[in-house]
TrEMBL record:
Lineage: Bacteria, Pseudomonadati, Pseudomonadota, Betaproteobacteria, Burkholderiales
Family: Belongs to the DapA family.
The name this protein goes by in its record: 4-hydroxy-tetrahydrodipicolinate synthase
NCBIfam families found in the cross-reference section: dapA
UniProt subcellular location: Cytoplasm
EC number from the UniProt entry: 4.3.3.7
Amino acid sequence: MQAVDQVQQAFSGIWLPLVTPFADGSVDFPALARLVAHYAGSGIAGIVVCGSTGEAAALDEAEQLAVLDTVLASAGSLPVMMGVAGSQVKQVQARVRRLAGLPLAGLLAPAPYYVRPSQAGLLDYFRTLADSAAAPLVLYDIPYRTGVKLETETILALAAHPNIRAIKDCGGDYHGTQAVIADARLSVLAGEDHQLLGTLCLGGAGAIIASAHLYPALFVALAQAVAGQRLEHARRLFHAVMPVIKLLFAEPNPGPLKAMLAREGWTRNELRAPMKSAGAALEAALAQACERLGAVVPELLG
């Protein structure tokens, strides 16, 4: 039980999958540093670098490492997790080994995309990465991006590996989520923003959610309310943020999110092709929803 508790403490709370700011096509490192410093004081549990919200697929390896270096230099004591993705196991394994000397809280690894391996192939893939990693491996089950789902039996088999500690759950399988939480060997982090409250109430340890870029204190308070058995307050917070969450994902992420961050002055409203900025109508609707939410934040947190 003590080992399980340690896992839950290491990967719990609200983690932020950080956007990557761009300026005229290049990574905007000053804006990135400002964002990290801002969120480091917001109460979140940690930052995830080079996830899908960070447009990692649009960054070459040198850019990814430079982004990581900037985040680590700006994060202070805030834990940092790095995304590692690819379709070729030896290439991803080599990347994992190159990260070994950095002070990372974990490595977030999805299934190999496009090739759609069998469940046996997935077991081999994740065990190979976990064997090679200095930091704990966090599984990332997101079948609508990778083309293959981590079945519950596969996740539970991987939970036996001493260096696989958590899972970002975007699998959309309620029964599977419940089974992994009940098994208790992995820390289960909600990866779909609209499933945050349900996962936490099932016993999930936290979340990695893009919407926490906006009003992060509300999401932190929501997680704390569930942990403290103040479920009526947690529901109130969740219902308050859901209109914003819904609009943030009405077009491909992180387009709508970057539009709001640009309005707040944190970064430019710029993405790398083939990603596009949010449409004008969605941006206007999202700005109105954020304004309504912002008006009640003092009451919600009071």
